[in-house]
Write a structure and sequence with these properties.
Layout: E1 5-8, H1 9-14, H2 16-24, E2 29-33, E3 36-41, H3 44-65, H4 72-83
Parallel strand pairs: 1-2
Antiparallel strand pairs: 2-3
Length: 84
């Protein structure tokens, strides 16, 4: 996995519009600050993809523990769908 760029909140404040442009173009940033744990800034598209992948994996886990079983081919099909 690619290392995320880390910036302090002060830099984010000073470079807000440039930072938002980079994030909307696909970059993700870890923002550090003195008030607590670091936070992550990412685009809506990336968040949607993460949520979709999580849902597919959740469904696979449910399928693995339920009486309804998925075939290997069905699991591969679902995983390929989220990789695109």
């Amino acid at each position: 996995m690619k290392m995320k760029k880390t910036i302090p909140a002060t830099n984010l404040r000073e470079e807000l519009y440039d930072t938002l442009k980079k994030v909307s173009n696909g970059d993700s940033l870890v923002i550090t600050h003195k008030q607590g744990a670091p936070v992550v800034l990412l685009s809506q598209d990336k968040l949607n993809k993460i949520e979709e992948e999580n849902e597919v994996l959740r469904q696979i886990a449910i399928g693995a523990t339920s009486s309804e079983k998925f075939s290997h081919a069905e699991i591969v099909k679902r995983l390929r769908k989220i990789v695109k």
